[in-house]
Write a structure and sequence with these properties.
The structure holds two protein chains of two kinds.
Chain A: E1 4-17, E2 20-33, E3 37-41, H1 48-55, E4 64-73, E5 76-77, H2 83-89, E6 94-97, H3 111-122, H4 127-140, H5 146-149, H6 159-171, E7 177-181, H7 189-206, E8 209-214, H8 217-223, E9 226-231, E10 234-240, H9 241-246, H10 251-258, H11 305-309, E11 315-318, E12 321-323
Parallel strand pairs in A: 3-8, 3-9, 6-7, 7-8
Antiparallel strand pairs in A: 1-2, 1-4, 4-5, 9-10, 10-12, 11-12
Helix pairs in contact in A: 3-4, 3-6, 4-6, 6-7
Chain B: H1 5-13, H2 19-28, H3 31-53, H4 85-121, H5 123-138, H6 141-176, H7 179-193, H8 197-204, H9 209-245, H10 257-264, H11 272-300
Helix pairs in contact in B: 2-11, 3-4, 3-11, 4-5, 4-6, 4-7, 4-9, 4-11, 5-7, 6-9, 7-9, 8-9, 9-10, 9-11, 10-11
The chains are: A alpha/beta, B mainly alpha.
Chain lengths: 327, 306
């Protein structure tokens, strides 16, 4: 194993609301090594984005707060750092790409200016040098005619192009870790593939690590080396991609994998009998009052009484494969 | 939202231009604004160098030619003391314009500051600042003006001289009583803008809080503020005339536009020209400032296709 960059240990990010404490992230541990792509999957409301935002400390406090845990970035805990110290780490060491390319760019500045901004803050470049660098970055993310496009405003770009610009902004300061929070969810399928390919190109080029947050299992299979499956604020399974798809142990993971549409199984392949795509019944439990025991028990077809009695701990079932299920 | 064909066409053929040049190009498309800029520029120029071109004393009393209609010797006619109205308007315009602009700057500065702090801080600070705005809004302005002038007039006169002191007083009073709408506008804009994803994105890239406010939120909130500011200039020019009329503004021998207008009101039936010309001056100034504001708002908003 190569050097571990980010090590999240037993992180609990809770939100205080009028109805009580929402345990959005409740004891999550995961780590990312240098040059690795870690996928974090789970359906909406599982705490994926809150985990990612916690790493950059983008959680509004209050109402949010770190109840316990540590976020070790190259051995240094980020939680006690002041906002000014965090500003030095953001963009330079850890950068982030957001889900919505349509609204994540400031409409009143040209894209060149927005790429140049972080260079001017962090690298202390002059405006001219930063703009030249911005053109270079646009070229790198394969925006045609970069010299001219650098002076265009966000509304003159399409969704996929804007996501390329977002990636250019995030990569301008050559971070070691890129957190991509559902970078392709708002894009159509062909553009999705292009953006993911661009991300992996950039990863190889800069030798950085990626934390890829997604709810699409297909995206995981093609892009990540290791996968963390989250459910209701907890990690339920963690494994390498091959291991996870070959031997999924947690019923939730199995359900997620079965809900991927597949060309070879669907429709006429089985003697013309049409099959419905499988889904996981029910929804994520309310994180205000999480049910006792395994949080997935209510939706799990294998659930027994033992499941609701005690919370299953994450246990190692194979090398590099952990699961939080008693089965 | 794909770029419109026509727009991407211009984007691809035009050479890169600086933001200022681009804003100017867009401003020029707004014909009324350009005409207004021209008119306002002309008014400002006349007011500044006019006394050199029209060297008629503003306070030479000549009862033989009182309330004369416009003629070659007195292009704007004369008032009840036989003073040349044009010379008086040229002189008074300096003060009216200066008061209007300075009071606007005070109002916008205070308004943006209070609005931005309230919008960013939220919670108790926000509530307290909005109460303050409500308080100011509910104060009866005229008695307050009377009291402020009564209390501070003499000490300010001592500090800045009679005209400087009055100018300072009027600007502070008008500006200080007109910041609330701007503050509310800015606060409302901030409340919605600070939740926008591009603000969070900038935060994720290490932009400090001050940088977020100044570089990312404020420029997006400026559209309505510019319009409010132009209205404030107009309102300040008019408020100054009210004050002068009540004897709280400049001394009666300084013929600001509002003052001339009020002096003329008793003679509307026999000497309408006396009121028409200062009225025209105020009207043209206010109107052109409003149009310029419109043009600026459009030119500075890159999302608007011009």
């Amino acid at each position: 194993m190569s050097e571990i960059l980010l090590d999240i240990r037993d992180l609990r990010t809770w939100f205080k609301t009028d109805d009580g404490m929402v345990r959005a992230v409740d004891g999550v541990s995961m780590s990312i090594s240098k040059g690795e792509t870690l996928a974090v999957v789970g359906e909406s409301g599982c705490g994926k984005s809150v985990t990612a935002r916690s790493v950059l400390k983008l959680i509004d406090m209050p109402p949010g707060r770190f109840e316990s845990g540590a976020i070790l970035w190259r051995g240094r805990d980020l939680i006690p750092l002041s906002m000014e110290e965090m500003d030095g780490i953001r963009a330079r060491e850890i950068a982030m790409v957001f889900q919505e390319p349509m609204t994540s760019l400031n409409p009143v500045y040209t894209v060149g200016k927005q790429i140049a901004e972080s260079l001017m803050i962090h690298e202390k470049l002059s405006e001219k040098a930063a703009t030249e660098q911005a053109v270079e970055m646009l070229r790198l993310v394969q925006i045609p005619d970069a010299e001219r496009r650098v002076n265009d405003y966000p509304h003159q770009f399409s969704g996929g192009m804007r996501q390329r610009v977002m990636i250019a902004i995030a990569l301008a300061c050559k971070p070691q870790l890129l957190i991509a929070d559902e970078p392709t969810t708002a894009l159509d399928v062909t553009i999705q593939a292009q953006i993911l390919e661009l991300l992996s190109d950039m990863k190889d080029r800069f030798g950085m690590s990626i934390m890829l947050i997604t709810h699409a299992m297909g995206v995981v299979a093609e892009n990540a080396q290791r996968v963390v499956v989250m459910y209701a604020g907890k990690v339920v399974e963690e494994a390498s991609v091959d291991e996870l798809f070959g031997n999924p142990r947690h019923p939730y993971t199995q359900g997620l994998i079965r809900s991927i549409p597949r060309v070879d199984v669907a429709g006429h392949a089985r003697g013309g009998v049409r099959q419905r795509l499988e889904q996981i019944p029910g929804t994520v439990p309310n994180l205000l009052n999480p049910p006792p025991g395994c949080r997935f028990a209510a939706r799990c077809k294998f659930a027994t009484e033992a499941c609701t009695a005690a919370e299953p701990a994450l246990r190692t079932v194979a090398p590099d494969h952990k699961v939080a299920c008693i089965l | 939202m794909a770029p419109l064909p026509a727009q991407s066409g211009t984007a691809n053929t035009a050479r890169p231009v600086s933001p200022t040049a681009e804003a100017w190009r867009r401003f020029r498309k707004h014909q009324l604004a350009v005409a207004s800029l021209f008119i306002l520029g002309a008014i400002a120029l006349i007011v500044l160098i006019g006394p050199l071109l029209w060297p008629v004393p503003i306070n030479e009393i000549d009862f033989t030619s009182k309330l004369k209609s416009p003629s070659l010797t007195h292009p704007f006619g004369t008032d009840d003391l036989g003073q040349d109205v044009m010379a008086r308007l040229i002189y008074g315009g300096r003060i009216s314009l200066a008061v209007g602009l300075a009071a606007m700057i005070v109002a916008v500065f205070v308004g943006v500051l209070v609005g931005a702090v309230a919008g960013m801080a939220s919670g108790r600070v926000d509530a307290a600042l909005m109460w303050l705005a409500d308080l100011f809004q509910s104060l009866p302005q005229l008695p307050l003006l009377l009291m402020i002038s009564y209390l501070f007039r003499d000490s300010l006169k001592g500090l800045f001289g009679p005209e400087g002191g009055t100018f300072f007083l009027i600007v502070i009073v008008i500006g200080g009583l007109r910041w609330m709408p701007v503050a509310r506008l800015v606060r409302a804009q901030f409340l919605s803008l600070r939740e926008k994803e591009f603000v969070e994105a900038a935060r994720a890239l290490g932009a400090s809080r001050l940088r977020l406010v100044v570089n990312h939120i404020l420029p997006n909130a400026m559209g309505p503020v510019i319009v409010a500011a132009t209205i404030d200039v107009a309102a300040a020019i008019l408020a100054e005339s009210t004050l002068s009329f009540l004897g709280l503004g400049f001394p009666p021998d300084i013929p600001t536009w509002g003052r001339v207008l009020f002096d003329a009101k008793d003679y509307l039936d026999i000497a309408p020209h006396w009121a028409i010309f200062p009225g025209m001056a105020i009207f043209l100034t206010v109107l052109s400032i409003n149009f310029i504001g419109d043009g600026l708002r459009d030119a500075l908003d890159p999302r608007r296709v011009i």
